Amino acid sequence: MSAPKKVVLAYSGGLDTSIILKWLQTEFDCEVVTFTADLGQGEELEPARKKAELMGASEIYVEDLREEFTRDFVFPMFRANALYEGLYLLGTSIARPLISKRLVEIAAETGADAVSHGATGKGNDQVRFELAAYALNPDIKVIAPWRMWDLTSRTKLIEFAEKHQIQIAKDKRGDAPFSVDANLLHTSSEGKILEDPSVEAPDYVAQRVVAVEDAPDTPEFIELSFEKGDATEIDGQAMSPATILTKLNELGAKHGIGLLDLVENRFVGMKSRGVYETPGGTILLEAHRGIEQITLDSGAGHLKDSIMPRYAELIYNGFWFSPEREMLQALIDKSQEHVTGTVRLKLYKGVARTVARWSDHSLYSEAHVTFEDDAGAYDQKDAQGFIQLNALRLKLLAARDRRLKSR
């Protein structure tokens, strides 16, 4: 790969990406444009801007992407009820394609010929960043310093930072007890003290969700309304996508909802243990399933459930911008045309539970399921022919097996 002339760096303002900024400047003698995204991680971003200025970034982008993140990435994913390996709500995975999208767009705006990220060579994020970047611009150069440099230890990183007069916070001189990534959908904690899956994670790992033992002793009821599969109101109040997720996060965190300790299979081949906190997303998933129960046809719902693991895997592995994900999204979005209505949920001691749901688009017919007189809505005699037709092949199989055994 030829040396880049201008690089757009995904920049958090932390020690690692600050070292990367300086390394790019010294290694390639190139201009570096920084891009810092507010995805709802709960951190003040102005310090990142000031630090980038001090370090000589040629241009600085700091953008609030919370609404775009929730509207165009989180909500479409939740229409699918996506869970990776049956448990993980894909909080980190779904943020990466948006960051890559803006990296590539900023590269085009500034005339940069390369983008760079701070993902290591062992994780999934390097794959997600780079697959998205190449999908959007096949000619873009992607620089992954962790796969290139010799700064392979915390000591070497600190030495590099001191040599180049990069400000180091006191708590960064020692190893952090675990690594944290956060956005509006979730907080993930991995590494160090969490690497042994046989040891329970310390209580202090959870930073967003209160312990179930400390959650209120009184349940709280909320109503979440949907329109075509997307949440639109909480307790009758219309809100933007990001505002809804923010409010659900507050409610979920308060009641100890959404904490997950998971050993997952990374795309690069190894297993890893992570502690994930997804309070609002856990409530949203429960509510979305609740409204689908009365508005989604059984055939459509069962087909949708059957493709969900594949859809979730595509997102986890970094294929958000692939044609197969877009094809599945079209099918999922078609299924949501009548997923409109309201769900009442009970939030209590770590659990969000649907307790009621209603919709003008409901397929539920009380006349057909009642144990009382149905006034001719359903003729129970029809079930006999239905059973006989479905039993025919089973009878033929049983007859053949009995015949063969009698020989």
Rg, nearest Å = 26 Å
Question: Which strand order spans the largest sheet, edge to edge or round the barrel?
Answer: 3-2-1-4-5
Number of domains: 2
Overall structural class, as computed from helix and strand content, comes to alpha/beta
Beta-strand residue fraction: 15-25%
Number of helical regions: 12
Shape: elongated
Oligomer classification: single chain
Can you tell me the CATH superfamily of the largest domain? HUPs
Report what the structure shows.
This protein has 407 residues and is of the alpha/beta class. The strands form 3 sheets. It has a 5-stranded parallel β-sheet with strand order 3-2-1-4-5, with helices on both faces. Helix 4 packs across helix 5. The longest helix is centred in the last third of the chain and has 24 residues. The protein is elongated. The model has no long low-confidence stretch (mean pLDDT 94).
Summarize the structure.
By secondary structure, the chain is of the alpha/beta class.
